[in-house]
Specification:
The chain is an alpha+beta fold. It is built from twelve helices and 19 strands. The longest helix has 18 residues.
């Protein structure tokens, strides 16, 4: 008896998601709690596990489809049963088009494909159909350009999926037509299977366009950023900070810090602590507007902008004002790993009262960040660059960083914004302030 695989709860107020990728194919064995699909929501990617051990027998949705929470997206049969159902014997009179029944369309189309002796047409075309289903646009384009057969390439990506490098390596390694080893005929015979790829390849020098549907995460980012511009009275104030003291402190204590806490001492810990200190003097920066009321927080939950493969995400360091340097750095490192692995959850990004964005890691010299609604302010960090400054009447080179504070002018006055940024600057240029609460 088949077991339904349903879309799990995706987080508070999230009712649907996009089926980003099937991680298993029909006929493959799955273990209990093994991920079989990846869903993309407005905020995170979520893996859908198999509720039981068995064989994946049916896929009820395609990649890119929108699925609601609780919807049945696949079925798991008993071990071995689905594998037989997904690869039936191929009668000669089988129709070329899709057949009725779930999970067998690709196999039916395969039964009319001519192939060499000793090869099961159904299994071959079923493999190719599902291999093509998991090809990214970049990989599919490389396959067409280099005239290689994706079913003949061993994928090195996750779960054996092809990468662009796999295709390029196969194209470089081949020394003849792709189908030449299978077709024992004159040299001109292999040109027929290559006709379609050659026709699809664009002439040399032709300009191309590619349309790729926006991911749900990218759509959400676009909507929220535009909403912030349309709703808030955005204004940005700038300052620069001498990073000499922080750099010296890191150089002096980084080895001891890593030995004791098992994590590297970074710059973000200093800035989080500096923001916590400054927010005590200027609480409106850590507040939000709710209707005709202002909501002040006696805690600081810092949203830290982290670059993920599918876009920028902002996991939250909760009660950052009560954390030590080591706790802050460990939390940030954990978020970075989860973002890279695509395992951030909706709870990781829920809430947040203030945001810090570090464009400096990408080489940004200066920018005007946009606030993350319903928050009222965001601090932008930038790259450290030696610049000439005047110290004690002398022009000297110092490692300088530009800081930018974007804020909602409806709630935060210019005087408050400047005061907050100056407090951050003072704490970074004299880290002792962070220890004695000045």
């Amino acid at each position: 008896m088949a077991t339904d695989v349903k879309v799990p709860a995706l987080g508070e107020s999230i009712t649907e998601g996009t089926l980003a990728q099937w991680l298993k194919k029909p006929g493959e064995a799955v273990a209990a709690d093994e991920p079989i699909a990846s869903l993309e929501t407005d905020k995170v990617s979520v893996e859908v596990p198999s509720p039981v051990a068995g064989t994946l027998s049916e896929l009820l949705f395609q990649e890119g489809d929108t699925v609601e929470v609780g919807a049945v997206i696949a079925r798991i049969g008993e071990a071995g049963a689905a594998a037989v159902a997904s690869a039936p014997a191929a009668p000669a009179e089988a129709p070329a088009g899709p057949v009725t029944g779930q999970g067998q369309t690709e196999v039916a189309g395969a039964q009319v494909n001519p192939t060499g002796a000793g090869e099961n047409p159904a299994l071959r075309e079923d493999h190719e159909a599902h291999a093509d289903l998991t090809l990214s646009p970049a990989v599919r384009r490389a396959v067409l350009e280099h005239h290689v057969d994706p079913s003949k390439i061993h994928g090195t990506g996750k779960d054996g999926r092809l990468t662009k490098d796999d295709v390029l390596a196969a194209a470089k390694a081949k020394d003849g037509p792709v189908h030449e080893p299978e077709v024992k005929a004159p040299a001109v015979a292999p040109t027929a299977p290559q006709a379609a790829p050659v026709a699809a390849a664009a002439p040399a020098g032709e300009r191309r366009e590619e349309r790729v549907k926006m991911t749900r995460l990218r759509q959400t980012i676009a909507t929220r950023l535009k909403e912030a511009q349309n709703t808030a009275a955005l204004l940005t104030t700038y300052n620069d900070v001498d990073m000499t003291a922080v750099i010296d402190a890191r150089a002096r204590y980084k080895d001891l810090f890593e030995k004791k806490h098992g994590i590297r001492l970074g710059f973000m810990g200093f800035f989080v602590k500096a923001v916590a200190l400054a927010a005590r003097d200027v609480p409106s920066v850590n507040a939000r507007i709710d209707g005709d009321e202002i909501v002040y927080h006696d805690y600081l939950d810092v949203s830290v902008a982290v670059s993920a493969p599918k876009g920028l995400v902002v996991p939250v360091i909760r009660s950052a004002d009560a954390m030590s340097f080591a706790e802050i750095e460990k939390t940030i490192a954990g978020f970075g790993k989860k973002a890279k692995d695509g395992t951030l959850t909706a709870d990781d990004m829920k809430g947040g009262t203030f945001t810090i964005s570090n464009g400096g890691v990408f080489g940004s010299l200066l920018s005007s960040p946009i606030i993350n609604p319903p928050q009222s302010a965001v601090l932008g960090m930038h790259r450290i660059e030696e610049r000439p400054v005047v110290r004690d009447g002398q022009i000297v080179a110092r490692p300088m960083m530009y800081l930018a504070l974007s804020y909602d002018h409806r709630l935060i006055d210019g005087r408050e914004a400047v005061t907050f940024l100056v407090r951050v600057k003072e704490a970074i240029e004299d880290p002792t302030r962070l220890l004695i609460d000045l």
